Amino acid sequence: MYKELPIKVEVIVFKREDNFCSFLLLKRSPEDGGFWQPITGTLEMEESIRQCMLRELEEETGIREILNVSEEIHRFSWRKKDYTVVEMVYGVEVPHQDITLSPEHTEYRWCSFDEAMQLLEKENNKNAFLAFKSKLL
């Protein structure tokens, strides 16, 4: 039996300034691995994918204002203990605003696409960014 739904969202948050895109990455706390990643979260019962994205965006960064949400741009799966998790990736454009981190993260950074690719450790996250680049940039 699952303790949580085996469905996750990954939110690639970006902002445009002077025809340049910056991407928001969060560094997980040391007890959660200490690695850089986009916003991720688990779908809750009776919640739509969009509701999950917006909830996780606000919980992890304090961001409430959005400009645009993409269609699904990438999907991948991975094993967690004894079941498979499906993770769906979306892009969310935001205006410039302050970030308030949740306790599960220790730092945030707005960075270029190339910097994001260097900071990301997990291959699935890198592939999601490559899919974002090919579909939305």
The strand count comes to 8
Helical residue percent band? 10-25%
Helix count from the secondary structure assignment:
3
Largest sheet: 8 strands, mixed
Shape: globular
* Distance between the ends: 40 Å
Q: Based on helices, strands and strand pairing, what is the structural class? A: alpha+beta
What value does the Rg take, in angstroms? 14 Å
Strand content: 35-45%
Q: Could you state the order of secondary-structure elements as H and E? A: EEEEHEEEEHH
* Low-pLDDT ranges: none
Task: Write structural notes for this entry.
This protein is α+β, with helices and mostly antiparallel strands. It contains 3 helices and 8 strands; from the N terminus they run ββββαββββαα. It has helices spanning 49-61, 113-119, 123-136; strands at residues 7-17, 20-28, 36-37, 39-42, 68-69, 74-80, 83-93, 105-111. Strands 1, 2, 3, 4, 5, 6, 7 and 8 form an 8-stranded mixed beta sheet that branches. The relative contact order is 0.26. The mean pLDDT is 94.
